Amino acid sequence: MLITKLHITPPGPQTVHRSELFEKLDAGLKAKLLLISAPAGFGKTTLVSDWVLQQKILAAWYSIDASDNDVTVFFSYLITAMRSISPDFGESALTLLASPNQVSKESILRLLINELFALPEQILLVLDDFHLITNHEVVALFAYFIEHLPSNTHLAILTRADPLLPIAKLRSQHQLVELRLADLCFSVNEIYSLFNRKLNIKLSLPEVQSLAGKTEGWIAGLQLVALSLRGNENSAAFIQNLKGDNRYIMDYLIEEVLKIQEPEIKDFLLKTSHLKQLSAPLCNAVLERQDSQMILERLERNNMFIVSLDAERKWYRYHHLFADLLKQRLFSTDKSTITQLHIKASAWFHESKLHSLAIGHLLHIKKYEDAIRLLSETGEVMWEKGQHSSIMEFGDLMPSEVTIKYPEFCLFYGWVLITSGQIQKAAPLLASAEAITRNRIATGEAEGSPTEHLKKLLGKIAVAVAYQNSFLGRPDIILEYCHTAMANLSEEDPLWFSWGWYVVGMAHLANENIYESTEALKKALAFGKQSGNIYLITTIGITLGFNEGRLGLYKISYERSAGLLEFMKERGYGALVKTDWTYAVLYANMAAIQYFWNDLEGAFENIEIAHNLCINEANITSKVLVLIFYSVLLHNQKDFAGAGKKLKEIEAILQKNKVAPVLESMYVGCNATFLVHQNKLEKAHEFLEEHGVGAGKVITYTNEYCYISYALLLMAEARMDEAFSLLTQLYEMACAQSRIERMIEIKIFFSIIYQTRGEKEEAMTSLIDSLRYAAPDEILMYHLNYLEQINSLLQEVFRKPLAVKVELPKLFLEKLKRAVDSRKIQPADNSGLTIREKETLELMAENLSNQEIADKLFISLNTVKTRLKNLYVKLEVDSRTKAVEKAKEMHII
Predict the structure, then answer these.
(1) Is residue 804 within 8 Å of residue 798, measured between CB atoms?
(2) I need a surface site. Which of 22, 46, 346, 444 has the fewest CB within 10 A?
(3) Within this chain, do residues 71 and 13 fall inside the same structural domain, yes or no?
């Protein structure tokens, strides 16, 4: 990172202080955005830097260049600029930006916005040369940043062209202050002050007026006129002969300026014009001389369109337009030296570990082989730091026939292409990388690299290919490359070893081997935590928690999700887990488990967090999962309209997007189940047939959700034999994979079928089996959902557990009995209280503490507190005592 880009350039002694413009700029401190937009050479940077320093404004400065067209680079510089005001600003966000598996950028921006909001003072963030940002993603994210900017933060954008930001909207909201070309042009008085007082070049008022007319107050032109007039005996004649438009004036004046320079200075100017930043060591290396520091200081003293970038006078830059004209002159007069100048500059930047600048110089002169060799050395570091846009940009500039010969760069360029959705473009890169690497290992032609390095490279490539095929639904190929990856990677590199185990887990999951998938993901998580990569950890944790839930390990799954959120908070990302859609599935998983535990308030609390996180920004998988879980909760509360609305949202998504088959199956299963529960059997039939569900079809783990609902429909239609046959097949599949949650549900269905046949003993046996499966993780909702059909059998279990030969934990039976009994309690008329709130009130009346109530109801302490808050609002009281008194007055308890 070039810290010089974050330095407020102090105005030189010749600067004309523009107090009238200062007043306009001051107004920008009452608005969100101060926009200074004008062509090159109108003094935008000098004006704002002078204003900031003269007015002693608390400001951070960021001078943008073309290499900043990368989301990670841009916002890393922005955060670092802010640290000149608040040293610890954006610590978490910087870590997130540097991750190879990035969270949504909007979430990172929300972290930054929250930190800005917490700052105690009014601050100004200045972005100079914003027109150099052409990356649409950067611009869109920055627009989001502006939209949500807190009132204590103000932006100043200096640009040659209006950016694609919500300028019109800000203007209509009176949140925009603008300075444009007409504001920035020097007036006659300012030109007179510049020449006669600041530059000590004596011009008469008529000469100044003439000069103002010819230059139209163009500050760059005026400065070049001043350089040309030095030593000129006849200033009046010079000004009189000056004519033409701005470009003509600039070309003419650059000729005049160069003509009066000593050959040594002229040569220095021309041959350093291709450098975006200049330092004495860099110029010495490029020009093979030792006196560059002296020359740079001399140029600055003579106001030769050079700007100091730091207080120590170590780094400088030319005014952009001046540099452009110098480069044009060099190209027309000494084209042969340009290539060597770029090569020397690249070598110096490479030695100084400023690799992106080194690569940029090589690409400028189309030294593709040299550039890609350097990219091969630095590509992994760039990838690990999250500089994916830079990798993409360099890869896109490189001829494919060159790229394809370098497996190291192909690996990371291919990975970035996959994550951006360009899977087909990535395929030949990864195929070439694999073929070359295997050939080098086989033939021993390591080209200076040890065989161990090549094996590691092959392992990484195999991970990338497996990752690629996970998007294409090819489990056999995924597993094949997983084996290659794990054979060539080691625990010494926990990041890649974790990725290896993750794709192994995904391969097993694609092959419907959930247990094997879960074991692989556990190993992936352990190594992921060693790597410290929070997004890898999160990705693994989400998949692992989902798997454990399918295995009926609800307590472990819930603790996995809650523990992962706690892990994130301990690492300083507490705000992130409630602002980024990545974590929506964790909250949804906890909500689903709480639902099956009959903790409905806790479930609603978490599903609402998940829904808010993912509704606008999430990927399709997260959004559909959350909407499915939300619809189930709403349907359970008899909110059929709300549940239907969520299903409609899913339907709209499915019409426009291709999602994983298991998600579509879950949606179909939920919709059909809801229709059956509402006794809309004909509609359920039509819906299932529409989605290809019916007798005689192949049943897999993927479409199992559909066939559970189909079995429920058959039972509702009294087609018990068909339902029993289908459920037997489904039960065998669930047993084979130890999927406890499905085994519980099917055993309940068996019990219902046996009852309709009058086979009470078999019905009781099946019910006891379902209870035995549910007991270890206290899974209640499957039994509560079918309470009407199985209640008589459950009451027998509650009354005479020994008589029915059931060995179940007493606490589990007590918890289930309490849940069953509460289903019979009707809420008091007109009270507006839920059943759960009413039972909490009853326990409050017994003077139990919050913790005792939580223990009694088998819910969390937070859930009790949430119920109390709701009770106070509904009863219009502010204490426990008043709530109990009011409830007794209303005959609620």
Answers:
(1) no
(2) 444
(3) yes
